[in-house]
Description:
The structure is a single chain. The protein is mostly helical and 349 residues long. It contains 9 helices and 8 strands. The chain has helices at 2-16, 87-121, 140-208, 216-223, 244-268, 276-304, 313-316, 322-328, 330-337, and strands at 26-30, 33-37, 62-64, 69-71, 82-84, 133-136, 319-321, 342-343. A 3-stranded antiparallel beta sheet has the order 3-4-5, with no helix packed on it. A 3-stranded antiparallel beta sheet has the order 7-6-8. Helix 5 (244-268) runs antiparallel to helix 6 (276-304). The model is unreliable at 18-48 and 341-349 (pLDDT under 50).
Amino acid sequence: MKLAAAVTIAAALLAAAPQGWAQETRDVEVGAGRVVEGFASPGLEARTPAAGPINPDDVQILIPHEDQVQGFISIPDEKLSVLVQPEGRQWRAFRMSGLFWTAGAFILGTIALLAIFFLWRGRIRIESGRSGRWVPRFSGFERFTHWVTALSFLSLAISGLIITFGRPLLIPLIGHGAFSPLAEASKRVHNASALPFVLGIVVMLVVWLRDNIPNRTDLIWLRQAGGMFSKPGTPHPEAERFNAGQKGIFWIVILGGLAISVSGAFLMMPFAVTGISGMQIAHVIHSLLAAVLIAVIIAHIYLGTLGMEGAFDAMSRGEVDENWAKEHHRGWYDAKIRKKTRGASMPAE
Length: 349
């Protein structure tokens, strides 16, 4: 009897309770599935910004896009509405495999070709020997600009290669524990080296633009490949202050460096200019141009050191041997330098 009375009282209380206390269960169609809203749910209408009652079937939960699966959100951070981005799979495949082989082919292929050329041609010597007389070639400011740009680029290249190739190449050698701080340090060095590199290429553009305008003399130099494939003793084609090969390297560095700088800025400031898709495109451009530029600079370093006798003097001391100037840049020597030559004894080797 007591149990029956308790059940009767409870039923009466529930019948007298406000409508909002009761459990309300309803189904809302969302795409191909169903969402069940349960006890004391505020309802879909209360969670939409529009005023007045709205049919739950009219609320667009999923916004279709061709390149991503994106939903609707009410918070200010729009990038959080991207749920799935199919393009990201393609970018990840490029980052983990395509970039590895493409960059490796550019860089290692250049080194291999230079090694073959050196074994065949040897070092390009000063045919008439060193004269012991020095010709001014680059001012102190020009050499300072060159070395700031060169050292910052080497810092960018090494740190970028560690970030790009460290996972497949370095982790098996040094382990995850050592690679993690190395990768973090490489990222910081890479970002810090960007500013002096950008400033350097801008200054180089201003300082050397006039001397790197292509002209008719460059066509003759290109037809003869600068005499690099000629037999020893064959006169080199005439060139001005910079020959066609040096002009080509100059424009690759300037234009490629500016493009790398812009794409790198997009990556250093995520979502400031573009979204996820734009940053993926910027990364592809940044990494491929970096691989090409590294290969070009490797060839530039080879020709300025091991590949050609007397070339390194231009950037190490700002002067070149008179016979070197006559053989490699006769037009520049005849027009600008002959009256400024000065005698000097060669340092003992």
